[in-house]
Amino acid sequence: MHHQQPAVTVDERESLRPFLSLIRDPDQLYARTTSGEFFDCQDHALMAFQIWRRMGRDNEATGGAWRRLMQSDCATPDVMALVAFHIFHSLD
């Protein structure tokens, strides 16, 4: 089975663009997992993007799924900023 890069519509891109301003310094968005893995902004952004796709591209559902998965209180706009970061920095 051939895997294609998921398409992001112009409307989706434009609706997510304002969230980019929430990421002021991508180099400051990193974490080390309990097993010692290093996750930078791009790693987090890819994970958020995949959750967004899996949750039907629904922002609120994505925020809720992220909080459950990560056991965090990260606000939905902050999760969507990661989605936007992936779209504008990795898919272009």
List descriptors.
92 residues, mainly alpha, two-stranded antiparallel ribbon, 4 helices, 2 strands
Care to describe what's here?
The chain has 92 residues and is mainly α. The protein has helices at 10-16, 41-54, 59-70, 76-89; strands at residues 31-32, 38-39. It has a two-stranded antiparallel ribbon with strand order 1-2. The radius of gyration is 13 Å and the shape is globular. The relative contact order is 0.20.
Spatial order of the strands in the main sheet?
A: 1-2
Measured distance between first and last alpha carbons: 24 Å
Major beta sheet summary:
2 strands, antiparallel
Please state the CA-atom Rg, rounded to the nearest Å.
13 Å
Q: Determine the structural class based on helices, strands and strand pairing.
A: mainly alpha
Overall geometry = globular
Count helical runs: 4
In short:
By secondary structure, the protein is mainly α. It has four helices and two strands; from the N terminus they run αββααα.
Mind sketching the topology for me?
Layout: H1 10-16, E1 31-32, E2 38-39, H2 41-54, H3 59-70, H4 76-89
Antiparallel strand pairs: 1-2
Helix pairs in contact: 2-3, 2-4, 3-4
